[in-house]
Description:
Blueprint: H1 2-8, E1 11-15, E2 21-26, H2 29-33, H3 53-62, E3 69-75, E4 81-87
Antiparallel strand pairs: 1-2, 3-4
Amino acid sequence: MQRLVAAASDVALMLDAQGVIRDVIVGSPAAEAENAAHWIGRPWIETVTLESRTKVEALLRDAAQGARWRQVNHPSPSGSDWPVLYSTVQLAAGAPT
């Protein structure tokens, strides 16, 4: 499953019910350069820019209602923002998003 997700996306986050990142699957060299793996154990909302936090809240809130897409910006180690198009999907009741 992890290889399928990596092939289909630049970065995928597995979240727990509280929105904490439990795993990061990187599918591109660009995503690897952003060092997204260091987000594990942090709330997703803390990994994005201030302007993107309301988008993350909406994605988490709406995950059970089906896929909705939003562009979210992460601060980049290079000093600029790293835009990522995310969709949230709830896998099962109470399961990670």
